[in-house]
C-alpha cells in the first residue's frame, strides 16, 4: 500500500517514512502482548482446571462404596469455578485487546496520512515540523 502512494516521490523519503511507521507500530503493539497472551491462554488454563475437577470427582466416586451428592458436588463445583475464572479473565482481555488494536490501527492511519501530507509539501515543510 505505502509503495503505491509515493510512485513519484523521493525513495529516501519513502524509506524513512516506512521505517518510522514500522518502529512506531512495533513499539505500540509491544504493549499489547501480555493482554493477547492472557486472552489466548486463559480458556486453556480454565479447561485444565475443569478436567482436574472432574477427574477428582470421578476418583471420589471410584473410592467410595456409596454414591452421594456430596461425593461429586465438591469437585464438580471446583471444576465449574475454574471454568468461570478462566472465562472471567479471557473475555475482558480479548475484548480489551480488540478495542486497543482497533484504536492502534486508527492512530497509525492518522500518522501515515499526516506523514504523507508533510512529504507532499516538500523538504521545507518537513523541516518546519521537526522538533
From TrEMBL:
Keyword terms of this UniProt record: Cell inner membrane, Cell membrane, Membrane, Protein transport, Transmembrane, Transmembrane helix, Transport
Chain residue ranges for the region called Disordered: 1-20
Membrane topology value: Multi-pass membrane protein
Localization annotation: Cell inner membrane; Membrane
Domain MotA/TolQ/ExbB proton channel: 18-112
Transmembrane segments: 32-59, 79-100
Keyword NAD (UniProt): no
Gene Ontology process terms (BP): protein import
Keyword S-adenosyl-L-methionine part of the UniProt annotation: no
One GO cellular component, as annotated: plasma membrane
Domain of life: Bacteria
Compositional bias of kind Basic and acidic residues: 10-20
Classification via InterPro entries: ExbB/TolQ_transport, MotA_ExbB_proton_chnl
Function text: Involved in the TonB-dependent energy-dependent transport of various receptor-bound substrates. Protects ExbD from proteolytic degradation and functionally stabilizes TonB.
PANTHER family from the UniProt entry: BIOPOLYMER TRANSPORT PROTEIN EXBB (PTHR30625:SF14), PROTEIN TOLQ (PTHR30625)
Family: Belongs to the exbB/tolQ family.
Subunit structure: The accessory proteins ExbB and ExbD seem to form a complex with TonB.
UniProt name for this protein: Biopolymer transport protein ExbB
Protein source organism: Candidatus Tenderia electrophaga
Lineage of the organism: Bacteria, Pseudomonadati, Pseudomonadota, Gammaproteobacteria, Candidatus Tenderiales
